[in-house]
Amino acid sequence: MNAFLIILVVAAAIAALVSLVRGVIALLKTTEAELTSGEPGPSASSVKQNKMMMARIMFQALAVLLAAVLLLSKGH
Description:
The structure is a single chain. This protein has helices at 2-28, 32-35, 44-74. The model has no long low-confidence stretch (mean pLDDT 89). The longest helix has 31 residues, at 44-74. It has one domain (2-74). Helices cover 82% and strands 0% of the residues. By secondary structure, it is mostly helical.
């Protein structure tokens, strides 16, 4: 059971890292034309950045929750 939880924690941490990298790449691809376009609403790049960072937060929360469960299970 503990090995399974450890694998899930590592997988969630890797998923958080991948989401972080994808969000940073989307940030770096933002062009000056997108920033000064004057169009209402967020650009496609901004939407992708937001989605990737929200995914990162969810994966980090999952990793912390799984780590807490792992630590609590070792106490018994």
